[in-house]
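User: Second chain of the day. Same drill as before.
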Amino acid sequence: MLTRGLLWTVSLSLAILLTANLALGRGGQIERNADELARAFVEAYNAHDVEKVIALYADDISITTPDLTTLRGKEPHRSYYAAWFQSVPDVQAQMRTLVIEGEIFVLELLETGTYTKTLPSRGAPPARNQKLRYPFVILGRVKNGKIVSLRFYENDLIIERQMRIRK
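Assistant: Same format as last time:
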């Protein structure tokens, strides 16, 4: 027969375990919410850690770029971040604003860096140590503790002027 104290302890332990299990996502890891994922994205980006950035993404991630190209899956983004971090080795994104609404986050960032190595894509502007400093916004959606979509907004005119593509 259980005593009242023991019954209370068992009940409390079960409640803690149930609460912990509700927060657990796939693979036994605690699911991150939109705020945590947005902050983790900026932290991994600023550390130039491609694998940490990619680990935040769902397998079927959908990312839409400013020119409205949409890429799906992790692989195209792994290659992009690796090339970008090599081309702009001092790139940093300073968080200006973070807005959370349920599973949606909006990040307003200021990106700075020096374009020192030409990107390995067709039509990429030549690197001449151009200093970059431009605002951009990311609209993200989270589901099951992973980022499932991102949409990037930036003013390409500012970037093209800084890259010396356009006057």
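The helical segments are 4-23, 34-46, 50-55, 75-87, 156-162.

User: Great, on to the next one.
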